[in-house]
């Protein structure tokens, strides 16, 4: 009898691939285990076992697998089901889902680079011969491909060997560049056992009388020990005693001190404080909790609509407590890792060690650790707080999902595939686990509110801020008028300057919001009008003063700022528009003695960069924080009394059907950062158009008015949630070929689908990284089957791919494009 195994390879293949296995292997392999397999001419991949069967493939002669890598599945049945849904719904392959779902350490392949782990002390005697060979080779070479390891040990099957070496900490996998592995092994020190005895100790101090530095170290160690029972890191002893490492080392060498390690989890924890775990909800929160539970009883997802600072988090905490009491795991999704640092402290306050964090800025090792903890359902992984990818963790017993700030568009993955919406994928995940799910926001998306109104979702609301705090007082500042009357200094109206001055006098903090980073979007020649363009993309370069560079925000291209116009040579260059960097600089001139911080993509690249800015603002080391939409997210600063929006107009005028909804959300959210304690917060919005409907709705906190009006427009012009959108982007380096292919595609779609099709059209940025782009938008009415429409699109794609001249044209699907 022949046995076969279908596997999912982590590459975009339409179908599963089949390998030959022995009967023993067939008995052993379970779905969700990893296997190393050969693919193509010479590649080795880690693949996921999907199905064991006895039907030989017809189209090809199956190869044999190399190795089984796991004893137990690393992926659960529910995950496979969920990922299958993601692939199907978002029109991508299962392989693409797996590639983004599994930590890369799980999916080593022949091209993966491995490095020596310089930070670990390897005991060579504990290595097998093969392991030693690899270890040795890496002492002479900086990196090896896994295929090269094969040559070194002269074996075809090395995946298991590599996995073991990674596991033993002998080697590391090459990580994304910005992130170097940091050792987490802290060195501790204690007094040698013999000196526990007082007499011995007295003698020792006597002996050391002639070595005052050494005796000082010993005495300091005593003081530290008296202060706390916690282990004493060498670094602390060094600081406390004023003695150098050399002195401490001398004592260690003399066996007076003893050095030791405590192997630490990479993911660190704070202490739980027992007494403060109890929350009493106020009446509005209680009512919301009741309504949420009502929705849960009807097995519906529930939308929690609570104004900013209404205490949604405390309601979630109650739900999580209940979930844990039932012995189930909880998942808390956030749109942005920027938010985790504040929330993690709040959750650890209640749940201590039971909270794990998971997101893409964590190192490979940290991610693997969390993955395994979730899979094994350990104490540490009862609650996972994470960005969208935490949706793919191997929950075995999920009871509750919280999607916080559900309106955030960053829940949608844009690139690469799977282009999934984490909120929507979370609803499906919850259903698969029969878990409860709550979506929370102060400014719910039109989609979710619509689902609540048609009773597909349950609904709960909190309309008052917690603790009788008033909603902020929001005022509009007419800049057109201010300019006419010459009442502007740079980009600051007199009113805003006065408000800032007052807040500073009171010792309060200020947030200023400008939805654009950099210094000025464009540098224009006032003589000939030339604006420097990116050579790879169809956009103007943005001026970054700090580095004196022009940069492309799409591909990263940059050049030094020229002294004269590149076109006409005239030195009359001028800035148009403004970004966060320029605001920061103007503040420096207006308020010379005030400390100003900035939070945008440029200042938050490193691993802990967000955390540093946020905590330094929290600690009031800065008076003013200037930022892009990053500062609008649900941060909770206690001392901010004033929020200024530098310019609301570019947001409102953005050419997109969601621009008004987004502006409302963004402005309401950033306004919500003001006055979160007793004193009423103040918000000033500078605009050229103070009569704009959306701005009026923001100032009066009129969500319902906004919803009604936006919903009416979506009905009129047929936009979501009344239709489904699928965007197809075609890409090619050849402009003419792209246009022809796009026309062909749109024509075929029109012939077959019988739904409204827009385009092909150039997107606002029609060339990125040397590729020309063209979009086709498909609008699918609610009553039409989405699944069937997708099948028809796939069939058209097949015919498209059969046309040889379009071979180089790439198609990208974006389902529920936002
Ligand atoms: P939201 O997430 O709705 O914007 P938060 O959850 O941040 O609001 O709550 C605002 C503030 O009120 C927080 O500082 C929070 O600790 C406090 N708070 C909310 N509910 C309670 C409660 N029941 N007991 C004590 N403090 C609360
Ligand atoms: Zn570019
Ligand atoms: Zn010029």
From TrEMBL:
Q: Which reaction does it catalyse?
A: ATP + H2O = ADP + phosphate + H(+); Couples ATP hydrolysis with the unwinding of duplex DNA by translocating in the 3'-5' direction
| Essential cofactor(s) | Zn(2+)
Supply the SMART domains for this chain: DEXDc (SM00487), HELICc (SM00490)
Ranges for the Helicase ATP-binding domain?
293-462
Q: What's in the keyword line of the UniProt record? A: ATP-binding, DNA replication, DNA-binding, Helicase, Hydrolase, Isomerase, Metal-binding, Nucleotide-binding, Primosome, Zinc
Q: What is its EC number?
A: 5.6.2.4
* Domain annotation Helicase C-terminal: ranges: 560-715
Q: Kindly list the positions annotated as binding Zn(2+) 2.
A: 534, 537, 552, 555
Stored PANTHER family: PRIMOSOMAL PROTEIN N
Subunit organization: Component of the replication restart primosome.
Q: Note the NCBIfam families from the entry.
A: priA
State the family it belongs to: Belongs to the helicase family. PriA subfamily.
Protein purpose? Initiates the restart of stalled replication forks, which reloads the replicative helicase on sites other than the origin of replication. Recognizes and binds to abandoned replication forks and remodels them to uncover a helicase loading site. Promotes assembly of the primosome at these replication forks.
Name of this chain's protein: Replication restart protein PriA
Organism field? Flagellimonas halotolerans
Q: What is the taxonomic lineage of the source species? A: Bacteria, Pseudomonadati, Bacteroidota, Flavobacteriia, Flavobacteriales
């Amino acid at each position: 009898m022949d046995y076969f195994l279908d596997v999912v390879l982590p590459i975009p293949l339409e179908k599963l691939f089949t390998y030959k296995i022995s009967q023993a292997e067939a008995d052993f392999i379970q779905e969700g285990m990893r296997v190393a397999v050969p693919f193509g001419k010479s590649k080795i991949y880690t693949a996921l076992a999907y199905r064991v069967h006895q039907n030989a493939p017809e189209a090809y002669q199956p190869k044999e697998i190399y190795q089984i890598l796991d004893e137990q599945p690393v992926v659960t049945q529910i995950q496979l089901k969920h990922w299958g849904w993601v692939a199907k719904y978002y029109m991508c392959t299962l392989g693409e889902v797996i590639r983004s779902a599994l930590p890369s350490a799980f999916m080593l392949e022949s091209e993966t680079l491995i490095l020596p782990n310089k930070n670990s002390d390897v005991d060579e005697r504990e290595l097998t011969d093969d392991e030693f060979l690899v270890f040795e080779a890496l002492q002479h070479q900086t990196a090896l491909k896994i295929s090269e390891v094969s040559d070194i040990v002269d074996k075809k099957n090395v995946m298991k060997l590599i996995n073991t070496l990674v596991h033993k900490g002998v080697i590391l996998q090459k990580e994304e560049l910005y992130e170097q592995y940091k050792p987490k092994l802290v060195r501790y020190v204690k007094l040698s056992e013999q000196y526990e005895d007082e007499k011995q100790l007295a003698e020792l101090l006597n002996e050391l009388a002639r070595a005052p530095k050494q005796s000082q170290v010993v005495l300091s160690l005593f003081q530290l020990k008296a202060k706390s029972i916690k282990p004493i890191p060498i670094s602390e002893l060094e600081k406390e005693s004023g003695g150098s490492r050399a002195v401490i080392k001398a004592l260690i060498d003399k066996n007076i001190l003893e050095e030791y390690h405590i192997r630490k989890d990479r993911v660190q924890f704070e202490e739980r404080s027992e007494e403060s775990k109890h929350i009493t909800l106020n009446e509005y929160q209680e009512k919301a909790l009741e309504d949420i539970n009502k929705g849960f009883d009807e097995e519906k997802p529930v939308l929690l609509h609570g104004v900013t600072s209404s205490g949604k988090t405390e309601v979630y905490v109650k739900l999580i407590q209940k979930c844990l009491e039932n012995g189930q795991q909880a998942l808390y999704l956030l749109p942005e890792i920027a938010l985790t640092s504040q929330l993690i402290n709040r959750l650890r306050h209640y749940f201590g060690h039971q909270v794990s964090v998971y997101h893409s800025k964590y190192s490979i090792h940290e991610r693997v650790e969390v993955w395994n903890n979730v899979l094994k359902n350990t104490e540490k992984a009862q609650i996972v707080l994470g960005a969208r990818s935490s949706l793919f963790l191997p929950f075995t017993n999920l009871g509750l999902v919280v999607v916080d700030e559900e309106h955030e568009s960053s829940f949608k993955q844009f690139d690469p595939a799977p282009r999934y919406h984490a909120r929507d994928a979370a609803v499906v995940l919850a259903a698969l686990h029969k878990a409860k799910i709550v979506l929370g926001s102060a400014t719910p998306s039109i989609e979710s509110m619509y689902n609540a109104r048609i009773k597909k979702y349950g609904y709960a609301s909190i309309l008052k801020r917690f603790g009788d705090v008033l909603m902020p007082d929001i005022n509009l500042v007419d800049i057109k008028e201010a300019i006419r009357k010459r009442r502007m200094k740079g980009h600051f109206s007199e009113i805003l300057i006065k408000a800032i001055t007052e807040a500073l006098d009171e010792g309060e903090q200020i947030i200023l919001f400008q939805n654009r980073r950099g210094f000025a979007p464009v540098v224009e020649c006032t003589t000939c009008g030339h604006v420097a363009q990116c050579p790879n993309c169809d956009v103007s370069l943005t001026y970054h003063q700090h580095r004196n560079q022009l940069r492309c925000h799409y591909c990263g291209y940059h050049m030094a700022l020229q002294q004269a116009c590149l076109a006409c040579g005239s030195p009359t260059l001028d800035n148009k528009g403004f970004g966060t960097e320029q605001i920061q600089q103007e503040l420096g001139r207006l308020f010379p003695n005030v400390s100003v911080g900035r939070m945008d993509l440029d200042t938050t690249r490193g691993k802990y960069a967000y955390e540093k800015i946020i905590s330094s603002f929290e600690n009031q080391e800065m008076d003013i924080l200037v930022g892009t939409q990053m500062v609008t997210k649900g941060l909770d600063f206690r001392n901010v009394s004033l929020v200024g929006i530098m310019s609301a107009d570019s947001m409102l005028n953005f050419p997109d059907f969601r621009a008004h909804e987004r502006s409302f959300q963004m402005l309401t959210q950033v306004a919500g950062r003001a006055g979160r304690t007793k004193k009423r917060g103040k918000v000033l919005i500078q605009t050229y158009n103070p009569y704009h409907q959306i701005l009026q709705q923001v100032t009066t906190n009129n969500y319902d008015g906004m919803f009604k009006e936006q919903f009416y427009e979506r009905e009129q012009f047929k936009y979501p949630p009344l239709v489904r959108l699928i965007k197809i982007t075609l890409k090619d380096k050849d402009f003419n070929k792209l246009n022809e292919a796009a026309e062909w595609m749109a024509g075929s779609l029109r012939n077959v689908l019988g739904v409204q099709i827009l385009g092909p059209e150039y997107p606002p940025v029609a060339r990125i990284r040397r590729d020309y782009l063209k979009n086709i938008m498909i609008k699918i009415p609610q009553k039409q089957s989405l699944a069937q429409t997708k099948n028809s699109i796939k069939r058209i794609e097949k015919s498209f791919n059969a046309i040889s001249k379009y071979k180089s044209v790439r198609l990208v699907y974006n389902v529920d494009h936002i």
